[in-house]
Amino acid sequence: MQIKLDVTGDQFLASELKILTAFQKTHISKAKGSKSETTVSVDHWYDDSLKEEFQNLKNAKNFKAAKDETISFTGAIGETVWVVGLGDKTKFNAEDIRKVIAKILKGTRGSKFESIGIDVPGFNTIRDEAKTARVIAESAWMTDYTFDKYKTKKSEPYNFILILAHTEKKNSIKIEKALASTKNICESINVIKDFINEVPNVLHSEEYARRIEADVKKNLKGVKIKILNKAQIQKEKMGMFLSVNAGSAYEPRLVHLTYEPTKVTSKTKHIALVGKGITFDTGGYSLKPGASMAGMKNDMGGSATVYGAFRSAVLEKAPVKITCILAMTDNAVNENATMPDAVVTARNGKTVEILNTDAEGRLILGDALDYACDQNPHYIIDAATLTGACLVALGNQVCAILGNDQKWINEVLGAAETQNEYMWQLPIINEWRQDIKSKVADLKNIGTPMRAGTAIGAAFLEEFIKNDIKWAHLDVAGVVDSQSHLPYCSPHGASGLIVRTLTHLLVNGK
Ligand code: BES
Ligand code: MG
Ligand code: ZN
To answer: Alpha helix (H) ranges present in 198-219?
Structure first.
């Protein structure tokens, strides 16, 4: 799919499918006993001939412009016109724009339109044409993603040109910029969706690191990349990370990426992103039951999410220094796999009793966070599919955030709000910090079963943050896949969510 901006309106008029919008207006009569009346209002007819043709339609009277209600007719030059109902204009926000655009595009799947014109002012309920164009394009590019490499019959691609038409010439530079930046971000989102959806017999730790390296070399000029292999991870004394990798047929990898903006001053902030990259989670000796194990190829989703944000921020020339640390291994079982009751020593020197080998994410992340602290960032943010408890607490639609600095957490929450991505804070209380003290070692890797699992995981991670670095942890176990309520995400497979939030944070200075 190609997206073009049309300032003159000529391309829009020549498009084979034109999308216009209509809103519902309810008039409440003050007179006693009289009913309220609903009328349809189209704010922006692209040209008067379309308006006339619409008004001459027999079924126009029945069209109430309710959300998802569409009326279709043929225009003067034989083009198809869809007038799409958006419901109450005062309640229609940016996320509604994303949703309706995805539904419209899905409605065109299999059709032969070579160009589709979207009337941007018609969607501009948020009174910002550049942002309206941005969210339309965002939705289009996210919807345009399919993962069909293992299907012999491929799905129909959206191979049309999407024309975004707008009326105000003075806004065109701003809109062009918004579209170019949206393209960078959505391309990164679609790259990481491929990583997440890739199957675990192909995307093991060694292959995952290779694919990241290839992408960095091809697309991220100036970014430094260092990949630690098993011997180097041993040298780093990452005992927890190595204990998870012990049962694997593959070597672990720690990918270390660095980006610096062109202008660095003493005020330049340095942010570290850290991600859980478990390419498959069997649970290890604490084996998962079959039904819970399927889908665990997505257990590297946290690392893919932070890489997606890093990638977009680099392409968008973020004004901050960014370190990105991705810890990769599978959690498998063989004769060398770590047994429950084992005690290992973390990179920071703390001893950890492993009571459940399925609580492996915190083990690899603990060492990765300690390594990240040594890079001296001002802020750290980690993302991980850490706990099933997150789905119990917040469903699969909401990302959990926890951390050690309320201001930093608020900044991340604020960024999520700008992107209409759901994020909710959970607490870390001292009682839960006590709950991970071990009888035989400094720490144990689980707390009381069935109690505050997401926060216990975060309390464990907190043990590996040093020098009072401001840290926020995102549990993306729910949001990383299967977002069937969002039409611009595939109902099964990777969602690509949270990349937008993190990119916004980085590109806007933090
Ligand atoms: N990768 C899982 C968490 C998960 C579960 C992600 C479901 C997505 C969907 C994690 O490694 C795990 O197994 N956590 C355990 C922790 C427990 C043993 C303390 C869990 O949630 O059951
Ligand atoms: Mg696990
Ligand atoms: Zn896991």
So the answer is: 205-219
